[in-house]
Amino acid sequence: MPVVGFGCPLLAKSLRCNCTNCEKSGFECETDGACMASTSFIQGREQHIRICITSDHLVPPGQPFYCRSAEGLLNTHCCYTDYCNSVDLKVPSRESSPGRRGHGGGWDPGWVGSGGPWGPVELVAVIAGPVFLLCMLLMVGVFLFQHHQRAYSHRQRLEVEDPSCEHLYLAKDKTLQDLLYDMSTSGSGSGLPLFVQRTVARTIVLQEIIGKGRFGEVWRGKWRGGDVAVKIFSSREERSWFREAEIYQTIMLRHENILGFIAADNKDNGTWTQLWLVSDYHEHGSLFDYLNHYSVTIEGMIKLALSAASGLAHLHMEILGTQGKPGIAHRDLKSKNILVKKNGMCAIADLGLAVRHESITDTIDIAPNQRVGTKRYMAPEVLDETINMKHFDSFKCADIYALGLVYWEIARRANTGGIHEEYQLPYFDLVPSDPSIEEMRKVVCDQRLRPNVPNWWQSYESLRVMGKIMRECWYSNGAARLTALRIKKTLSQLSVEEDIKM
Ligand SMILES: Nc1ncnc2c1ncn2[C@@H]1O[C@H](COP(=O)(O)OP(=O)(O)OP(=O)(O)O)[C@@H](O)[C@H]1O
Ligand SMILES: [Mg+2]
């Protein structure tokens, strides 16, 4: 072991080091070079040396010879701060793996202590640090996820089970009729509270599918022993679901001739959202289904026609005041969108395409697109796109045209003296089964054709009145058509004359 600058003189140099051989100077030395520590294992003997190295012996620069280690024999560490060579170096062994170069430039297979990079502690820190950080991030992630889940289910529970007045609404013995009665007397006028809607919807047991439309399926369901209809929209149709629920919850819309809305619910099952619209169930199904199955008496015809006019008049009517309602146009009136109740009256359904009139600003509540609805029932001004969409009454006039077509479907099925016609859709003899707009436009606008009103209807007062109403619903000029209220009055009068109890 070379002893370079080794000795005891306390030189007037700046760096102080531990010195194993400097008994006289209290095992300390001073140098202008480096402090050095080395541990050797030679011929079975361990030897620890700490000394000063003078600057002129620190050659070659950067990797001084005296600071080098020798694998398996010698661990050497040079350093440049006071007493920095107090470190305990590992005893070299043949098996020890090569380490990194110490900052003294020697081959440093690993020393224990402070002052050098990439020692075992540092190595552990370098490896364990990121692992620890990763674990922490993972734990924080898991915690946040669990927290979110807990908050979500709590929120869901709150929405379903709270507010605390729920038990008042949903006491076990209450039927739907009771609920809806409570609602009508509580004065909101726009439907059940949302949490009640949700609870009702989530406790319905679906029984059988009863129909399929453009936006989804319709099911019969059971709630507390009573039947309900559930229209299930696909998640793609969320906008239609939302719009229909919104329209049904228009303040003061409820009417005996408008389908009774019960609840809307969007149930997220984790993968997709189920969109439900719950309403009264009518076992006869749509007017289209009904007329296909049954012919009707004169009384039955008037009942159907008058109730449909009452429903449409209520829909169209604007009621002013705090408990008022806006005027609403249906825009998809047809026999499939009118249901037949047990008492032989109609209930207008499918309000998903409806528009509401905001009379203060004289605007329509959504940007109406030109041609929605069912092509067969489109008014001439809708088919040729001349409808004035800025004017809300235009939409009401288009509804009246469609009502006239529905009346024609009903009147054909009226049983007079044992005669009645088979069920047919309007224009069945003039257009194919799924007509295009162009095909409808040619017939309705260009040729100005309308469904046939047979002459023999003139022989029966009620059929004569019905025929007259139809013609006045079908004018090419929308503004010339009857209003729903006018039709309602005419048919009311007819029902009195015919001694019909409504
Ligand atoms: N509340 C209800 N009670 C009983 N049956 C119903 C009810 N609502 C709908 N239905 C039945 O389900 C069918 C499908 O209704 P839906 O409104 O989805 O489609 P549609 O009216 O036939 O066609 P579109 O998609 O053009 O409106 C109806 O034709 C009717 O027979
Ligand atoms: Mg429908």
TrEMBL record:
Catalytic activity reported: L-seryl-[receptor-protein] + ATP = O-phospho-L-seryl-[receptor-protein] + ADP + H(+); L-threonyl-[receptor-protein] + ATP = O-phospho-L-threonyl-[receptor-protein] + ADP + H(+)
Domain Protein kinase intervals: 204-494
Binding site residues for ATP: 231
Protein EC: 2.7.11.30
Entry's localization field: Membrane
Transmembrane intervals: 123-145
Pfam family, one: Pkinase
Gene3D superfamilies with a match to the protein in the record: CD59, Phosphorylase Kinase, domain 1, Transferase(Phosphotransferase) domain 1
UniProt keyword terms in alphabetical order: Apoptosis, ATP-binding, Kinase, Magnesium, Manganese, Membrane, Metal-binding, Nucleotide-binding, Receptor, Serine/threonine-protein kinase, Signal, Transferase, Transmembrane, Transmembrane helix
InterPro entries xref list: Activin_recp, GS_dom, Kinase-like_dom_sf, Prot_kinase_dom, Protein_kinase_ATP_BS, Ser/Thr_kinase_AS, Snake_toxin-like_sf, TGFB_receptor
Coarse class of the protein's main subcellular location: membrane
Cofactor: Mn(2+); Mg(2+)
One GO BP: cellular response to growth factor stimulus
Membrane topology field: Single-pass type I membrane protein
Gene Ontology cellular-component terms listed: plasma membrane; receptor complex
Complex and partners: Binds the type 2 receptor protein ACVR2A.
Record's function text: Serine/threonine protein kinase which forms a receptor complex on ligand binding. The receptor complex consists of 2 type II and 2 type I transmembrane serine/threonine kinases. Type II receptors phosphorylate and activate type I receptors which autophosphorylate, then bind and activate SMAD transcriptional regulators, SMAD2 and SMAD3. Receptor for activin AB, activin B, activin E and NODAL.
Protein name: Activin receptor type-1C
